[in-house]
Amino acid sequence: MxxxxxxxxxxxxxxxxLSDAMTDVPVDSAASARTSxxxxxxxAEEEELRAELAKVxxxxxxxxxxxxxxxRHCGELKRKLGLTPLDGLKQNLSKSWxxxxxxxxxxxxxxTLEDWNEKLTQSEAYKKTQETLSQAGQKTSxxxxxxxxxxxxxxxxxxxxxxxxxxxxxxxxxxxxxxGSRENSTDGLHSPSGxxxxxxxxxxxx
Length: 206
What we know:
Blueprint: H1 20-23, H2 29-33, H3 43-81, H4 85-101, H5 104-121, H6 124-160, H7 162-190
């Protein structure tokens, strides 16, 4: 503990008062400050690379500060223009989609799909399938038309049959009877009935 409390400053006038244990240890400040150089690099090359690394890191820090200032300025401009984050998102999506459309991969894929579509539509199998579907549609339309004609003809035959006419006559007779009975009852309610409609007057003297 006593040796640890000694003044180890090399420029101190008390530097000669270090303990024997401390003075016995060789001190190499250059070796302690420098790590071992990687294989294949000289000390000069290492120092040059370290200086360049420090310079690049300093430039990165400066660029980050400039970018942060630009982002703040951009946010202020958007706020003054009334632009919301949603507008920015829409703009970014639109730009991204435009970039995708003009990209080589998208153009190549579109061209490939067009070639496949052209080959498919020009193939014999596609033409036969299309022709078969067209014929099936025409046959279905013709069948439905025939069914409608048959139903119309059957209804006409049924209306002309004796059974239907007899039924129609019966319905007409019932209807005429009902209408006649209603008219007779209405006439009976409104016809005059002489003095019977008026109450007898009492002409007796008081």
